[in-house]
């Protein structure tokens, strides 16, 4: 059984500067900070001081979450609310300073797909290298190479180095590789619209099949319609905390209520 569990997870990012130690900061800036902190914020996590006296941005604070097979969770909230941080914590990229994260199942992440690509490698070399990096066997890589090539429609460009590719061509290749196997736990930062208009419909059909095959799917988004289409539950994040958790429409309604209240 696939599973994701977060227990009292706290993630901090240290701020490496000396501003908080100066007399000018204490006398002039701290009162301003306190005034800003007393207002409703629709961006960012909480800026605070940790137990060592260092200033940090608290991206997540005391987050509890449990997901099992069949869950399709949407994360929504303002910029800096903690959506991407949760995804990267689930993927093992960020280490919590408190609490624990337990996952059961192979994790497939559809964010940063073109990062760390070797621009001197050819398309076919990239298919093989990325497949091996994703933990697939040489046989699995060879079995899927032609299917990826057919899907991307990159033709002779697959024999050429990636430095000759446009940005859209790189996305096509990365998307084709990432979606070439059945995921167990799928993490996405926004739904991907891969490539140009002529490629979009096939990419969306492939993505739907990919999501349907996943045991658990978690997507971070700013778009309520994505929640309605792909998710069966949702979480509203605000300043690193879970502000609402439940049915998709209920969470969207709560988000809109908060946005409207902040405008008054």
Order of helices and strands: EHEEEHEEHHHEHEHEEH
Mean pLDDT across the residues is: 86
CATH superfamily of the domain at 3-106 and 222-263: P-loop containing nucleotide triphosphate hydrolases
Overall, the morphology is globular
Helix and strand content put the structural class at: alpha/beta
Number of helices: 8
Can you give the helix content as a percent range? 25-40%
- Uncertain segments are 36-40
Query: The CATH topology of the domain at 3-106 and 222-263 is what?
Result: Rossmann fold
Number of strands: 10
How large, in whole angstroms, is the Cα Rg? 21 Å
User: What would you say the CATH architecture of the domain at 3-106 and 222-263 is?
Assistant: 3-Layer(aba) Sandwich
Question: What topology, given as strand order, has the largest sheet?
Answer: 6-7-8-4-9-10
Largest sheet: 6 strands, mixed
For the termini, the CA-CA separation is 47 Å
């Amino acid at each position: 059984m696939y599973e994701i569990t977060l227990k009292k997870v706290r993630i901090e990012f240290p701020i490496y500067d000396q501003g908080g130690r100066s007399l000018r900061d204490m006398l002039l800036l701290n009162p301003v900070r306190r005034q800003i902190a007393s207002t409703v914020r629709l961006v960012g996590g909480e800026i605070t001081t940790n137990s060592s006296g260092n200033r940090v941005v608290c991206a997540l604070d005391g987050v509890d979450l449990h997901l099992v097979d069949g869950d399709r969770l949407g994360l929504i909230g303002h910029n800096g609310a903690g959506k991407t941080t949760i995804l990267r914590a689930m993927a093992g990229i960020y280490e919590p300073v408190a609490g624990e994260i337990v996952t059961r199942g192979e994790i497939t992440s559809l964010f940063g797909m073109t990062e760390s690509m070797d621009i001197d490698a050819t398309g076919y070399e990239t298919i093989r290298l990325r497949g091996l990096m994703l933990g697939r066997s040489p046989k699995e890589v060879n079995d899927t190479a032609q299917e990826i090539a057919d899907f991307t429609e990159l033709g002779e460009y697959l024999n050429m180095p990636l430095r000759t590719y446009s940005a859209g061509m790189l996305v096509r290749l990365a998307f084709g590789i990432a979606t070439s196997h059945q995921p167990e736990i799928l993490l996405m930062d926004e739904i991907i619209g891969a490539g140009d208009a002529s490629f979009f419909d096939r990419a969306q059909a492939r993505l739907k099949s990919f999501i349907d095959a996943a045991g658990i799917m978690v997507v971070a988004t700013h778009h309520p319609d994505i929640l309605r289409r792909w998710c069966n539950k949702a979480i509203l994040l605000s300043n690193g905390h879970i502000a609402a958790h439940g049915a998709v429409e209920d969470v969207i309604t709560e988000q809109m209520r908060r946005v409207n209240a902040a405008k008054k």
